[in-house]
Write the structure tokens for this entry.
Amino acid sequence: MSALAPTAPKLLSIGYEKAGFADFILTLQAARVATVIDVRDLPLSRRAGFSKRQLQAGLAEAGIGYVHLRPLGTPAAGREANRRRQWPLFWDIVEQSLARPEAQKALSEAAATAAASLSCLLCYEADPCICHRRRVGEMLEASHGLAIEHLRVAPSFDPEGITDRHPPQPAWR
């Protein structure tokens, strides 16, 4: 009889770009996320519900924990390089930032959080290919054996009042 190899603990990642807060929460709940690990340098947002205090309160209301690990965030120069789509500069800044001792300590904290419960890295960009959280995830995968999976916020609102979760009922019902 062969023993099954243990599966690597999973770590999710998500970006909230163009997402509504309710859909964001529903996506996390559907994935059974227990803790959100905010990896933004500045946890502020123009999108309703995504600034640190409102986010933490909304997550708590949904039964989801919140941890902010600022040392894993992208500094201002990196965010500017991202906005300008200066990819080599952006990734160089990300690498330098994540090599700092405080970032290495925060990576260990993120790994401990992910080992304790299903966790999800949070940043703004919907596409993980252009977000530093991809690199954070890769580093955690390499150093702590976490299996990274990227989520996308599933929209549920339709201007006609039709959602994927609640299809319209026939008029005869």
Q: What stands out?
A: The longest helix spans residues 101-116. The CA atoms of residues 18 and 107 lie 27 Å apart. The two ends are 55 Å apart (CA to CA). Residues 158-173 have pLDDT under 50 and may be disordered.
